[in-house]
Structures are given as C-alpha cells and as structure tokens.
Amino acid sequence: QVEQVKLLDRFSTSNKSLTGTLYLTATHLLFIDSSQRETWILHHHIAAVEKLPLTTSGCPLVIQCKNFRIVHFVVPRERDCHDIYNSLLQLSRTAKYEDLYAFSYNPKQNESEQVKGWQLIDLAEEYKRMGVPNAYWQLSDANRDYKICETYPRELYVPRTASKPIIVGSSKFRSKGRFPVLSYYHKSKEAAICRCSQPLSGFSARCLEDEHMLQAISKANPSNRYMYVMDTRPKLNAMANRAAGKGYENEDNYSNIRFQFVGIENIHVMRSSLQKLLEVSGTRGLSVNDFLSGLENSGWLRHIKAVLDAAVFLAKAIAVESASVLVHCSDGWDRTSQVCSLGALLLDSYYRTIKGFMVLIEKDWISFGHKFSDRCCQLDGDPKEISPVFTQFLESVWNLTEQFPQAFEYNEAFLLQIHEHVHSCQFGNFLGNCQKEREELKLKEKTYSLWPFLLAELKKYRNPLYNPDFSPELTLLEPNTVSFNFKFWRNMYHQFDRSMHPRQSVFNLIMNTSEQNKQLEEDIKELEAKIKQRNGQSDVVLVKEQEQTAHPAPVAQKTPPCFQKEQLPMPVNDAVRTIEGSNTADNRYSELVSEFSKAEPAVVSLEYGVARMTC
Amino acid sequence: MEFAELIKTPRADNVVLHRPFHPAVEGTLCLTGHHLIFSSRRQDNAEELWLLHSNIDSIEKRFVGSLGTIIIKCKDLRIIQLDIPGMEECLNIASSIEALSTLDSVTLMYPFFYRPMFEVLEDGWSSFLLEQEFELLSSVTNEWRLSCVNKEFSVCPSYPPVVIVPKCVDDEALRKVALFRHGGRFPVLSYYHKKNGMVMMRSSQPLTGTNGRRCKEDEKLINATLRSGRRGFVIDTRPLNVAQQARAKGGGFEQEVHYPQWRRIHKYIERFNILQESFIKLVEACNDQSHNMDRWLSKLEASNWLTHIKELLTAACLAAQCIDREGASVLVHGSEGTDSTLQVTSLAQIILDPRCRTIRGFEALVVREWLQAGHPFQQRCAQSAYSNSKQKWEAPVFLLFLECVWQIHRQFPCSFEFNEQFLIMLFEHAYASQFGTFLGNNENERAKLKLPQKTMSLWSWVNRPEELSRFQNPLYEANSLVIWPSVAPQSLQLWEGVFLRWNRPSKFLEEAEEERINIIKYNKELQAKVNALRRQLAELETDEQ
C-alpha cells in the first residue's frame, strides 16, 4: 500500500491528476482516488511496466495493459516506486499455468454448476446442427488419443472416403501433422470449409495419400467437382517456405483444385503493426495528419481488410459456386482460424447470435489449437510468439457489425468483454495452446468456463437493433470491403480513455430504452390484470403499487470486480443523458500556452483547445 | 431570354440512367428550363428523377459509335450517367445542360420561377429578424442598442440594415469606425453569454497599415464591452506573419499599445481558397473505390480536410473558453470577416448556447451569423467539388461549418433537436435550391433582387410540421450546459452522410436508424399507456373506498 500516489490523465498536457492510494493484492493492482473511485487492474493484464526518470513530483510509473489501458502513476518516493515496479514485474510474469488467476478464482459456484458451465458449448452438437455426420462426412477416431496430431481436438470430421491410411499419410505430409479436416459444413450447398497446415512439399515432393485426401474432400461435395485451396499467406512467404521443405500445393499434382494465395501477413508483421498503431494512438497532442499517416504506416487497417477480403472470397466460393474450400497458412492455427471462422460467420447466421458466436470461438479457435497461451503471453515466454491474431478476428467482426447493424445479436461490449477475458486468465477457456494441454491441466475441474458468466449478463451484450429475420438461415452476408469502410476501432484501442468518446451514447440510450420497453410491457400486463381483477370482484385487498425502477442504480463493489469491468467505456444508465459538471481540461496547445504565459504571466491558465467533462 | 432557345432537344427516349448501387433504368429524358427530368417507362413502378440544372457542377460526354454517354456530377456530390442513343441528341442535350447549369443572371434562377405547392403558414423571410433577437437581449441587459446607421447599406455594404452595438457608441462614431475596418465591417455584437454577461463580437481587420494608424472610436467601441478592470481577447484567424504582411496592403491588427486591455491570439484557420482545394481532393479520394487501404489513408490525409475540421473546432472552443471559462469578452476577425470569422463565431455559439441546438435556434443562427452577416453564399457556393473552373472565390466555408456541427452532434447526439438530415439539407440548399434564401452575397444584394417579394424562403418550407418531422432528432432532450467537444483525431470522423452518401449501399444503415426511432417511439407509447392504466387503476381504487 502506497499513499499519495497520483494518477495522471493520459492525454492531458495540463498535468491533471487524481491523488489516491495504491494497493497491491495477490491478483490485482488497485487504485482508490480521493473521491473513492476505484481502478482495478488485473496483474495478468499487465503487458509492460516502465519506470520513467525521476521528476520533481515523484517517480513516474507507466503500466501498459493488454486491454490497451495505459495508466501513468506518479509515486512520491522512489523506493516505493521501485518496490511496486519489482512486485508488478514478478506478479505479471507467471511461470506456470497453475499460478494463473483462473486456478484461484472462485466465483462461488458449486460443482454441478461448474460442470454444467463447461457443458454449455457442445461441439458434437454443433456438427450435428451443421448436418454432419452424413452420407459424405463422418467422425474419425484417428486422433482419439492425440496420436496423429497433438494440436487438434480428439474428434475430427473427415470425408467418408478418406480411410485411416490416407489420414495418416496425409498427416505426415502436413506441417505439425495438421491434415485436412472439416471446419464448417454448408447444408444447402453441400460444400465444406476444411482446414489444415501447409504441405511439406519443398520444391518437388509429393504425397499420394495427401492427394487422395484432397480428392476425397472434393468428391464429398456432390454439387461441384472442383475445390479451392486457399493459401492465406502472401505468395512470397509461401515460396520461401519451400526452401525449408514446406510450401504449397502444386496444382499439377492435385486434380480439380484451384489454388489461390490471399496474402495475409504473418504473426510477426501483425505484432509490429499493432505496436505501431498503439504508438501512434498513444501520442499526446496528435495532429490529424500524424494520426492518419501513422494509421497508414502501421498497416493495421490494411491487415484487417486482408483478413476480411479472404473471408469474403471463401464465403463466396461456397455460397455462389457451391465449391468446397480448403484453407491453410503455415501451421494452420492463426490465419486459418481467422479466415475459417469469419467465412462461416458470413455464411451462417447462427454464428451471429450470442450462443453461436461462443460456439464459433470454441470450434475454430479453441479446439483447433489457436495458441492462445503463446499469442496472448499468458505465461512468461517467447515475446516473438505474441501476436494479436484473435484481436484482429474480433475487429473484423466489429467491422461487420458496423455495416450490418441489425444482423448480429451481440453488441460491441460483447466483443470487448471476450477480448478482456482472452487476456485475463480468469477463466479456463483460453488457457493453454491446445485441447491436449487443457486436458492435462484438468481445466474443467480446476477452473470455470467464461460462457455461462457472459450469458448471466446477457442484457449487457444484446444488440437492441438485432433483427433475427434480417438474414434467414444460410444467407450470405456480403460486406463492402472498399477501404473507406474500415475505421479505427476507438472503443477497443481507447476503451479506457473516456475523454475521446462521445459524451452521450446513442447505443446505450437505445439499449436502455429497449430494456425499459420490455419492463413497460410487463407493467402493462400487470396493470391490465389488476384492473380486470378489480372490475371482476369488488372487495380485494388493496395491493400497494410498487415503485418502478427501470434503471436500478449500480451498487458499488468493494470486492474485485470478478466479472464486470469496473469502468465501461461509456457512461451507462441515466448518466447517458446528462453531462456532469464540466471542468477545463486538456489542451493540446501547450506550445501556445507556454508562449503565452511567458509573455504575460499575470494571465493565468487560459487553456486553448478543448475542455473535457469529468464523469 | 427564353430558355427554349437553349433547349434544342427537349426530349429523348430510350435513355438509360446509371447510378451507383442501383440497377440501370431505361426511360425518357426531358429538359425544361430548370430541370432535367428522367422518367422510367415502366408502368408498374415508374421511377422519376428530377434534377435542378443549378445542382449540376460539371458534365462530361463520351461517345461509343452513335451511343452517347453524359456523366453528370452534381453539387451534392452525386454522380449519374445517362446513355443517350443518337449522337446529335446527345450533343444537343449536353450543350443545353451546360448552358442551363451555368446561367449568368441570378434572376433567371429557379427560385424566381418556383411556385410552391404548399400553403405558406409562416413567411420565412420575416421569421428571423434582428429586432426580435434584440428584444430577447434587452430583457437581460440594457448596455446595447439597435443601430440603423447602415439603413441604406452606405456604411457597410455587406452588413444588414440594422446591427447591435454598444449603447454608448453613437452612429457618428460607428461611421468613423467603419472607415477604419476592412469593407466597413465595424465590430458588432455576435453573441451575449447570459451566464456571465460576456460577449462575442465580430468585425474585419483594422486598417492600421504600415504606419500604425489608429482610430480612437474603434478603441472606444470595443472597450465599451469590457467590465472595468477586466480584459478581453482578440481572436485573429490569421497567423501572426500573415496579419503582419496584411499591413503592407493597408490592413493589419490591433496593436497592444492602442488596445492595452486586449490580448491578441492568432488562431490560424485556413483561407477559403485552400479549403476548396482540400474539398476537391477529399471528394476525389472518396469517389475512387479502387484505392487500397494505404492509398485511401494517404489520400484522406493529403486532402487535409479533417485537419481543417480540427483547427476550426479548436478555434471555436478557444473562443467559447475565453467567454465561458475566463469570463472575458472576445472580438473575432480575420481579414474580411466574412468567412473564417463567421465559422468561429457561429460554432462557438453552438458550444455555448443551448438555443442554437434547437431547430429554430439553429435556423436563426444561420440567418444571423451567415446570411445577415454577409457570407458571400453566391460566390462561395457557385461551384462544388467537381468544378473545373479555378475561380478564386469558391469555397466550402459553409459546408465546413456544417460538418463541424455534425462532429459535435456525433459527440452529443442527444443535445440537438435536429438530426443529420437537417444539416445535409442545408448543405444541398446552399448550393442549389428552389428557394431564394441562399441567393445573393449579402442583404444588400438580396434587397436589390427583391428576393423576399419574388422568391420563397427555405424557412417557409422547412418549418411546416410535415417537413419538420423529417428533421427532428428523436433522442433530443434539452441540455442547458455548455458542450465541449473532443478534437482528438481519434474523435473526429469523416462525414459519411455527405462524402460517402452516393458511394456505398446505405440500406442497412437506414433500416437500423429506422429501428432506433421505432424503439424510442414505442417507448413513448408504452409510457403513455402505463400512465393511462395507472390512472384507471387509481380511479377504481378510489371508487371502492
């Protein structure tokens, strides 16, 4: 516990700050300011801690979080600062899974609730919904004991004509043994999305079993003879891989395939792209042109567009040409997951519902071995393995929700909350890199599943504009991917910088109104019943009418916010419509101010630029 | 002149109309004196397009064999294409459109011919008189008076006949001050901040010249707005070096020695001709669907449009801050005081004054701070982003203002009585309209053209309940506070409603907007019903007792 710590406003140049006390708990960093407002930061969310050079007011400490929150503390005594710094470094770096928050997190559920929670999403059920097994596709037990591929789930669906030797042979010809399996089956077009890793083709190697495997996939589609093979990498990268004995499919060796590169960059490019984006968006006093050129140089939106373009290509191949598609990248767990899941989202409206989206993430990301632990740096490991691949997926979905405001049952807050928990290590779902690892960790016994907790707060994540009839089952969503449709996702990257957001949120207002409408509908029923009753029989005991509270006031919590985020990006409830006491604040014209005050020190604190509201 | 002389081919059949995101339609094209009319021949669901010639910014023609194609680019940024069979017909039509869309004489414009089909409930020409404004002001302060010194437009040709000035300055002094200010635009009241009695004035630059001329009456006039012992701020919308250079041409700025109670701040806002270039570049970038992400972002950046938005908002915030936070009076001017000055004073009022965020209040603001204040609409809006002519006086000054209002609207979506459509409607009518409101460059010209007698006012139409309902914001709840927008680049957005309006399918967005409105409407219905039922129940209860 350290007192008299200052929390600086990230974008203010007027050194506005809050003074309060900093506490370190086993799991969280807690700051309580003088007006008793609390800021909780989970240790697992901390991406980097930095001590800046000593200033006259104390020792500055900057904490960067994986949810893009950046806090800037000033600790009065350097020794305290040093202690906090060291503790945070230790606490934020976990060496083994068992020390992660999920293993100590106790949401007061009993055992059966815990078990039920894990059973909420059932992938076998999901494949049944898609329509497999059927005459062409069957469940294979080849990987039942993770013998063929350690990073795949136990249960895999393959074409009926693909015998075990073909599967084994094909898996030997594929990087990490990730042979072609079914990811999504389109009932009405009878076409499939399949996924795998790159073939070990080098410059000339071929594998008959693998060729048979692809043929089996294309034969499993009675409506179209040819199939697409999408290599999601840029062509150059794929060619370079040949030198290492890997590579891509040679169209001459595989009959009836149409091969296509789609040019999504690798995890390292994406990591540095995000880094650049954050550098730009975190700059104080940013000019419009620096922002736009920074946005351009980071390449971030270009990458998002590439991912979505690939998904559109995939979805169209299935919906328009009824052709099956095999998707791969290098290992088949990053770009492949992005493209397969987004493609399915465009094809099948089920994935645009709340439950469906959970299923989609469980299927294409968790079960097929997207390396969440490595990519999100859950344990102290190789920084080169970190990459915002899943974040890009969420951002692509967000872009779709912007273009089709009525097509999705979930809202932006849902996407942000999932992003939060991918990094929080509070729930077991995203721990580890693959199913095998998760089983070894006994996550289902020792930790809790995120999904029931999200469902318990369904109200917060519902899109009030959602129209289930917007697109009937299995109609293709066709987004416009012209560049100007892609926008900077302010609510993600500046989620905690409230001054940048609209002071009044249409979305929250509509959401509350929509909730209130439901309440009112019930009230009407109740009132009508009462009136009927009164008209019917005369001497009934008077029922006192209850006060209507459409918006219950949020209760202040003293325990760590086990689930809710302590600060929503936008003011909620009734605060939406009011603008609280304003105070002069940020000015991005410090140069002017200083110039000004030099000339005329008597004039005090005229701040140029924009004043902010404190909420 | 007869329009018929200009129309050699009044009608062409089998014309195909192409618009982005709409299927091509075949039909008949007719030219009249003021409209291009396209009507599809389908009987079941006839589609008609009426386009004002004055809305046409530029046209291009192309030929493939005997099939001619005319591409029409409109001032509201829409682009349509007409395929016209027959070389001669096509040439005739193209030349007619060209001639009719570039008529020299104002009196030939459509507003002089337009006869409204609706009943005029309120004459918009007399809806917003300065006298009414002054009456409101008189109820809170008696330090100001109405002056008719400019009755014959003799003191300042670009000012209205009546202006509000400090009470202690007489008309004689005003005449002298007018001689000391560029174009005779002496300082007048723009806004009175009721909360603390501070004011915002506007004028043009003082004509100090190189030898530092001064004018005692000018000093007295603006000092009259200061409380004793307090200081004021002069916000000059030019950078210091430009203001200094202006002295060589007889212009200049208020020098400290002569205005010791005033602190001068130079807050640069781009001059109008630069804005025009920026506008053209932005529209070009938005119209090219083939740009990859990098090119789009760099084009957007190169247009500098959002930079201008940010600068303008910043300047307006500065003026508002001086008044509301510093409790100081403010004088705003640039060179002529007809462009950037008005942008700043009007935006500052949006920030400070809740009344300006209502429909009527905003209309009054546009009348007071733009039309009566002498923004040269006819010059600035003669051409839009597709103009080839490099005239020096065209510029999207008013559009930039509207966009800044939109940006603030985005950040405070419940604080405005009007919606985005209202702003877009004003943009359209400023460039091409059946109403006379935006014709002429100032009140003087409007009086000479006898616009109030000969044309219909936009406000007569807009303020009819049928029309108003389209422009109302269902989320509006009066908010009496000062609203400070954020000007961080992350908080600013491209105004898609104007710039991407014709470039993307908007069906889903419109449907979503409709759904939002429905939810609000339904809420009101439900609430009314609950209240009615409660009353009924209460009555039953009392009956029993």
Automatic annotation (TrEMBL), chain A:
Residues forming coiled coils: 510-537
Cross-referenced SUPFAM superfamilies: (Phosphotyrosine protein) phosphatases II (SSF52799), PH domain-like (SSF50729)
Single GO biological process annotation from the record: phosphatidylinositol dephosphorylation
A Pfam short name: Myotub-related
Organism domain of life: Eukaryota
Myotubularin phosphatase domain span: 117-493
Sorted UniProt keywords: Coiled coil, Hydrolase, Lipid metabolism
Transmembrane regions: none
One Gene Ontology cellular component annotation held by this UniProt entry: nuclear envelope
Active site, renumbered: 329
GO function term, MF aspect, one: phosphatidylinositol-3,5-bisphosphate phosphatase activity
Entries under CDD domains matching the protein: PTP-MTMR6 (cd14585)
InterPro entries cross-referenced by the UniProt entry: Myotubularin, Myotubularin-like_Pase_dom, PH-GRAM_MTMR6-9, PH-like_dom_sf, Prot-tyrosine_phosphatase-like, Tyr_Pase_AS, Tyr_Pase_cat
Binding site for substrate: 266-267, 329-335
PANTHER family: MYOTUBULARIN-RELATED (PTHR10807), MYOTUBULARIN-RELATED PROTEIN 6 (PTHR10807:SF34)
Family affiliation: Belongs to the protein-tyrosine phosphatase family. Non-receptor class myotubularin subfamily.
Name of the protein in its database record: MTMR6 protein
Organism: Lanius ludovicianus (Loggerhead shrike)
Gene that encodes it: Mtmr6
From TrEMBL, chain B:
Keywords tagged on the record: Acetylation, Cell membrane, Cell projection, Coiled coil, Cytoplasm, Endoplasmic reticulum, Membrane
Assigned GO CC terms: cytosol; endoplasmic reticulum; perinuclear region of cytoplasm; ruffle membrane
PROSITE patterns, per database record: PPASE_MYOTUBULARIN
The keyword Glycoprotein is assigned to this record: no
Any Pfam family hit: PH-GRAM_MTMR6-like
Annotated GO MF terms: protein phosphatase binding
SUPFAM superfamilies, sorted: (Phosphotyrosine protein) phosphatases II (SSF52799), PH domain-like (SSF50729)
Subcellular locations according to the entry: Cell projection, Ruffle membrane; Cytoplasm, Perinuclear region; Endoplasmic reticulum
Similarity field: Belongs to the protein-tyrosine phosphatase family. Non-receptor class myotubularin subfamily.
Name of the protein in question: Myotubularin-related protein 9
Organism: Lanius ludovicianus
Lineage of producing organism: Eukaryota, Metazoa, Chordata, Craniata, Vertebrata
Gene transcribed to yield this protein: Mtmr9_1
